[in-house]
Amino acid sequence: MANTTPDIRPSNPNFSSGPCAKRPGFTLDALSGAFLGRSHRAAEPKARLAEVINLSKSILGMPADWRLAIVPGSDTGAVEMALWSLLGARGVDIVTFESFGEGWATDIVKHLKLADARVLSAPYGKLPDLALVDPARDVVFPWNGTTSGVRVPNADWIAADRQGLAICDATSAAFAMPLQWEKLDVVTWSWQKVLGGEAAHGMLALSPRAVERLETYTPAWPLPKVFRLTSKGKIAEGVFKGETINTPSMLCVEDALDGLRWAQSVGGLPALIARSEANLAAVAAWVAKSDWAAFLAEDPAIRSCTSICLKITAPWFTALPVEGQAKAAKQLASLLDKQGVAYDIAAYRDAPPGLRIWAGATVETADIQALLPWLDWAASQVAASVASA
What's the pTM? Predict the structure, then answer.
């Protein structure tokens, strides 16, 4: 830890895990071409919606036979559409290792009330035994735990000849981590994560196997209008061509396109992954020398390169009662906020007390490197406060 106030400040102090930092160089001028006051069903606005779909598929390397739709409710809406529309035909395994995965488990068990549902859980910072996932059953899992800083290292644990569907919440992984499309059947994300788009819109990607399930299986429960992906027993193709179920914000659409075009300009998916991994590497080098901080995910193979979660290991902190630890961690984050060097980096409310630094592709490594000495400074201030209490 360091008592001296650092000389260098991050150029962009936005390290929130959602909505996330805008792409470098962003200004509101980028949105000047938005079709404001126009119907999203008119030819030109609809073409912009289709462009979001087509650019997303291209940058992500999505297989040509997959369908991609813009849906309401952000990533949450996209996941719920998949759960309510597809589950119930088979037993389901739910992989949980953080808050949002636990939320999907609650919805499946307590709201959909599926009797044949298994929850495979692990505490924050770890993964459950993925070998327990049964290929004869559907599986629901987050690729990256936004609130735990843990990601699955790959999709090798998903059987190529599976009978069930693999439903993946990839909101803090898409555009920053390589997704193995051949092992997945449903993938969801939102605009507000890795490319720094504005909130409220989700993306729902379906494999041919998922489409077959939609066309051959009818859930036992009624589906709200915003969840319906079929019409007269067939997939509603228009939804996957920009004919959104509800009214989207054309301002947000323009913003999403700006992020996608920026992604293309910097080198596409490989460059986006490299930017996020470089940010993780910078934090890892600092943690290796730190006497007070460590990764919540102890295994390097499962550490997230987007939502980097840190725990405080210093004796002055671990000696505190739980409520004292929570207060100290919030004080540390508050100090950084007041200094204007890091906004919104307190750990998620359900996670262990600590810090969460968003390090997705829109975050510059230079800003991560400028932030790290400030973490040492803030920790020294809180340690002194605890010692004098």
Answer: 0.96
